[in-house]
Amino acid sequence: MLTDSQLLRYSRQIMLDDIDIEGQQTLLASKVLIVGLGGLGSPAALYLAASGVGEIILLDDDEVDLSNLQRQIIHQHTSIGQAKVSSAASRLNAINPEIKIRTIAKRLGRDALAKQVEAVDLVLDCTDNFASRYLINELCVESVTPLVSGAAIRMEGQLLTVDPRVPGSPCYQCLYPRQQQQVELSCSESGVLAPLVGVIGSMQALEALKVLTSVGEVLVGRLMLFDAKSMQWQSLKLRADTHCPICAKT
User: Fold this and answer.
1) Structural domain boundaries of the chain?
2) What pTM was computed for the model?
């Protein structure tokens, strides 16, 4: 049962027929792993905490730098030099002290990361490199854990949900087959407009809440592309690769 304080805190969500008290109880009982507390992870974590996701695990081995503050809104100037997960945890606890926040301030190997993925209801991939995205995707498929993957660079963003519980649905590697020499793009080399990561990260949080509560249509089998210059969204249908080395073998 929700307490009086929880009924008041989450009243605007509970008013939604699609959420109601049952949906809010589901969120409070949910565990989410956020990998990366940068531009995407910042708004995603803030909204998930405010929405009442009961336990959030923050994973990032980086420290806050001055150049991060242009877009990584969960951190403050006084956070410079701190571990990003510690800085983020402080902000999340200030927003919602009723939920549980757990931090991991180191890079995990495959086995250790697999244990974290297996222990949660959903993973948010807020990283900025292909190696991490491929590994997270593979572990989510293996453990049948839903994954919400986002990316943003320059003035372009994308969003994809992988749900191994849905038979015949595509995974991240179906969209981007792994190549020996994958071209890496980073904000430090290509730049990014600050609010863009806020848009994509917030959409990741929205998609995560929908997956957790089974509300509406989620982005399984669809890729959302956002062009900030033209302020246009595109939705592309995706098919599972029957020869995908990750999801075709499950």
Assistant:
1) 4-237
2) 0.95
Q: What is the C-alpha to C-alpha distance for residues 11 and 5, in angstroms, rounded to an integer?
A: 10
| Burial class of residue 12 (count of CB atoms within 10 Å of its CB; 0-12, 13-18, 19+) | exposed
Q: Quick one: pLDDT band at residue 17, thresholds 50, 70, 90?
A: very high
Q: Label residue 191 by pLDDT band (50, 70, 90).
A: confident
Q: Exposed (0-12), middle (13-18) or buried (19+): which is 237, by Cβ within 10 Å?
A: exposed
Measured from the Cβ of residue 234, the count of other Cβ atoms closer than 10 Å reads 10
pLDDT (tens digit, 9 = 90+) per residue, 135-155?
A: 999 999 999 999 999 999 999
Q: What are phi and psi of 142, to 5 degrees?
A: -65, -40
Each residue of 216-250: pLDDT tens digit?
A: 999 999 999 999 999 999 999 999 999 999 998 76
**Using the 8-state DSSP alphabet, how is residue 63 labeled?**
B
Strand partners, 64: none
pLDDT single digits (tens) 83-97: 999 999 999 999 999
Is 137 within 8 Å of 162 (Cβ atoms)? yes
Distance of alpha carbon 183 from its chain centroid, rounded? 22
- Residues 183 and 107: their CA atoms lie apart, in Å, by 22
Cβ-contact 55, 80 below 8 angstroms: no
CATH number corresponding to 4-237: 3.40.50.720
Active site residues per annotation:
187
Judging by DSSP bridges, how do beta strands 122-125 and 147-153 pair with one another?
Answer: parallel
- 119: tokens are 């222990």
Instruction: Give the pLDDT confidence score for residue 245 in this predicted structure.
Output: 93
Q: How far apart are CA 84 and CA 76, in angstroms?
A: 10
Dmax (CA) for the chain in angstroms is 55
